[in-house]
Every structure is written in C-alpha cells, then in structure tokens.
Specification:
The protein is globular. The N and C termini lie far apart (about 50 Å). Strands 1, 2, 3, 4, 8, 9, 10 and 11 form an eight-stranded mixed β-sheet that branches. The protein has a three-stranded antiparallel β-sheet with strand order 5-7-6. Helix 5 packs parallel to helix 6. Strand 2, helix 3 and strand 3 form a beta-alpha-beta unit. The protein has a single domain, classed as Glutaconate Coenzyme A-transferase (3-Layer(aba) Sandwich). With about 230 residues, the chain is of the alpha/beta class. Belongs to the 3-oxoacid CoA-transferase subunit A family. It comes from Lentimicrobium saccharophilum. Keywords: Transferase. Pfam families: CoA_trans (PF01144).
Length: about 230
C-alpha cells in the first residue's frame, strides 16, 4: 500500500464533521503543525479532539478553537489558552478533563486493545463521578475506559515510506501512544526517507500503525512560555 501523500490537505481527506481526532503533542512540543493548519483551513466542524491540551490562542489546536471547529475537548491541561477557558466557562465547549497519566494510559490501552483498566488517580474528586470504584491493595481505584479515534494525527522527527516513525526527545510525548489508537493514523514528519533507511532498533512506531505519511514543511516550533533566569 502506498502510504505517502503529498501534503497535509491530502492527508486529512476523509475526515468528516463530528469525527473524533487524537492529536499528538504536549504544549507546543511535537504537535502536527501542518495537519492542524489544514484542519483550520477546512470546512470541518463539530469535532471531538483528544489531546493533552489545546495549544495556545493563536497556535496549535487553538486555531481550531478560535474558528469554532471543536465541539468537545478530551484533555488534561487548559492553562495556556484563554479562548479554551472562555468557551469552557460560557458552555460553548464540552470538556472532559482527565489526569495526565490517565489520559496517556487510556490512549495506550486503546492502541493495545485493552478495553478498560483501574487506576487510583482522581478518586475522591469530580473525575470519579459516575465511575465504578474497586479497592486494590487497600486503595480505591477508578475504572477508566480506553480511548480510540477515527483519526490519529501525529508528528515525528523521521519516517520512512512504510510509515515507520522515530520521535525526537520529548516530542515523543503522546504521539507514540496515539499513533496506535487511531482507526486511520496520519503522520507528518520532518524528514521522509525511503523504506529501509531507518535503523530498526531506533523505530518507536512501526509502520503497521500508520496509514498516511507526508513530509511537513515550515515548522515554527514555538516556545510556549519563555523563561529566563
């Protein structure tokens, strides 16, 4: 199967209104910039996005929020996006907040075919409302269900034409888990090489999980919050 597509616009073909998307990244690190821009420029709406956060007001998933394309966010952090906060408080945006480790594991479980698991995080808080609680080793645990998506959109440092991916340092973050959990996974990479050129021992995501891949361009790689001593 030819997995290589020419650009982000071609990669997102088949995404329809109301679909659920997983979008890799942590803050602004490792986000699929080209794909997010293509989504922002599309006519799509009523999307559910699973992502650690929603970027900032004018970058990352914040671009989709600003254009009213996201109906629901499933995420763990909202602190750097004022538009996210405004839509949440006004009731315009449905939000499911999840402890960060639980979010990562729900994505990983979805890719591994594990339907649910028990975790202690969130017990005794609003996170626990409506969830089954069982005691293990004298500690209450919540039943959490795995997450999957119609499309997973991830960003990698290097990839080959078979879809094998290598992430760079902390830009791995949620990308590796989400790449496994999408019915269709789109990978944008900084460098696309012919099959066989990547060291098999260095591959983080095997190509079997990736259906579409393209080489991105014009990456900004913004700093979310610059801190100087």
């Amino acid at each position: 199967m030819n997995k290589v597509v020419s650009n982000a616009r071609e990669a997102i073909e088949g995404i329809h209104d109301g679909m659920t998307l997983m979008v890799g990244g942590f803050g602004l690190s490792g986000i699929p910039e080209n794909s997010i821009t293509a989504l922002a420029e599309s006519g799509l709406k009523e999307l559910t996005c699973i992502s650690n956060n929603a970027g900032v007001d004018d970058f990352g998933l914040g671009l989709l929020l600003k254009k009213g394309k996201i109906r629901k966010m499933i995420s763990s952090y909202v602190g750097e996006n004022e538009e996210f906060e405004r839509q949440l408080l006004s009731g315009e945006l449905e939000v499911e907040l999840i402890p960060q480790g639980t979010l990562a594991e729900r994505c990983r479980a979805g890719g591994a075919g594990i339907p649910a698991f028990f975790v202690p995080a969130g017990n005794g808080t609003e996170v626990a409302e409506g969830k089954e609680v069982r005691v293990f080793n004298s500690k209450p645990h919540l039943l959490e269900h795995a997450l999957t998506a119609d499309f997973a959109i991830v960003k990698a440092w290097k990839g080959d034409t078979h879809g094998n991916l290598i992430y760079r340092n902390t830009a791995n973050n949620f990308n590796q888990a989400m790449a496994m959990a999408g019915k269709i996974t789109i990978a944008e990479v900084e460098e696309l090489v012919p099959a066989g050129e990547l060291d098999p021992n260095q591959i983080h995501t095997p190509g079997i999980f990736v259906q579409r891949i393209f080489q991105g361009k014009d990456y900004e790689k913004r700093i979310e919050r610059l801190t100087e001593r």
